[in-house]
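Take a careful look at the protein record below. Let me know whether the structure tokens fit the sequence:
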Amino acid sequence: MIEDFVKETLAQDVGRGDLYALVEPSVEASAKIVAKSDGVMAGVTYCNVLAKLENFRVVWNKNDSESFVKGDVLATLSATSHVLLRVERTFLNMLLHASSIATLTKKYADIIEPYGVKLLDTRKTRPMLRVFEKYATRCGGAVNHRMGLDDSLMIKDTHLKTIKDLKSYIQKARQKIPFTAKIEVEAETLEIAKEAFKAGADIVMCDNMTPSQVQEIVKYRDANFSHVLLEASGNISLQTIENYAKVGVDAISSGSLIHQANWIDLSMKVD
């Protein structure tokens, strides 16, 4: 899957061929990837596949999940000039995209780490980039939420509109879905959360609630359904995530890890 992704990414950039290579013969060359801002490394796994496919050498000074600062030389590339300049943008785009997500994710993860709460990503990913972007959140310290609809059964507010009896539905679901698949129910109120607990949910998501509302559900869970996991989600930001971590949930999910990540600054300098 990674190899196919890398091939398609390079093909998009090269098109019918690099016009630069038509003008001058190829010569031996080397280049450095330089950090022009602080960040967290991600993309090494993908760039290594590109190196193998295009037959160039890359020596890394930083690995996935490691932090770097402005001015660090992250990697050194060696190849012929035609190869080096053909792969430049593909190499940098993968490294930039992944590292930018990992950098923001690390900021979230660091805030809630003292509370022992897991940081989760979401399915709010760019089309066709889910595997790549969720890999980047892992590099930043997050745990992947479900990759797709087949991972676990999440009953969202939209699903609840079509379900007349939640307990009956969950009982039927247990007979249909894989034995290892969990059932999560999204709740926007304490009343819906209580219904989800009683119906047999494995996980209850407290969606778009205030920290105090979530805390009320945590107290109810702890007193009555201590085996059920609690997740907080919905418009959670760097400024508010600690308030949710303090109330006793097991995990916090945020789409912001991906869709709010601004690109950091990396560049390739030919020696």
In short: The CA atoms of residues 194 and 220 lie 8 Å apart. The longest helix spans residues 81-112. The mean pLDDT is 97.
